[in-house]
Amino acid sequence: MQIRNLESRLKKSEASNLELSANLNESTVPLLQQITNLEMKNRELSHDLFNLSKELLDSGKVKEEIKVLQVQIKSLQDELELKEKSVSELALQISSYEKHVLEKEEKINELVNTIAKIQDEREGLIKEKEKILEQHKLALESQQSQSSINSDKDEEVKTEKKNREQLRIEIQQERESSASSPTTPRNTLLLVGQLQTQLKQTKSRYQLLEVQFQQLQQELDQHKSIINETDIYKTRLSDIEKENEDLKKK
């Protein structure tokens, strides 16, 4: 009887053991998978740690690059200030030349108007005297034809001849004076020619200044672009340095 009881209990124990073994096998599979996953995660973390360690080692180089970059930026900024000053001075010089050109053109226009006015006045006076001279000539011829009839008019003819000769001399002197006067159209035209030559030289200088101004403006824009790029790079390096400092704290 006791043996049967022991056999019964043994069978129950074996069944229980089989059930426990099966349950253990079922629970072991996910645990092994979790272990495998943890090992993979560990390898990834080890790789990340290696990279972070390398970045920490390179942080000193980053700081040196930042220092060099700061020196370069300061040099570029100083050069930029000089360029801006040169551009401003050149702009003032160009403005001065523009004013000078306008003054020269205005003076030339005034002289041209003066030439026309003087020429008209002189030509008018000369024509008026020539007209009077022609009248004297006609009067003299008339008197000469009558003097053969009336001898009393000989004196009047002589006087008319004298007046006519005097008027002719005045006209000749007027023409000579017109040719030698410093305010004659010819001399004034020479002065205009000189002013026009000066004006061309001034415009040529003005155009050269315009080219120099454009070149300086382009260089100025290039320097500003370089400074913007270096500022971006500097910001990036500063961010890397900050990240490295944060990693050190962790």
Write up what this structure looks like:
With 250 residues, the chain is mainly α. α1 packs antiparallel against α2 (154-180) and α1 packs antiparallel against α3 (185-249). The chain has one domain (2-249). It is built from 3 helices and no strands.
| CA-based gyration radius | 57 Å
Write down how many β-strands occur, each being a DSSP E stretch of 2 or more residues: 0
Poorly predicted regions: none
The percentage helix is: over 70%
Encode the helix/strand succession as letters. HHH
Shape category: rod-shaped
For the sheet with most strands, the description reads:
none
Average residue-wise pLDDT: 67
The rounded distance between the terminal residues' Cα atoms is 72 Å
What structural class do the secondary elements suggest? mainly alpha
Classify the beta-strand content into a percent band.
under 5%
Summed up, the domain count is 1
Count the DSSP helices: 3
In short:
The protein has three helices and no strands. By secondary structure, it is mostly helical. The two termini are 72 Å apart.
Keywords:
250 residues; mainly alpha
Which helices and strands occur, and which strands form pairs?
Elements (H helix, E strand, L loop, with lengths): L1 H146 L6 H27 L4 H65 L1
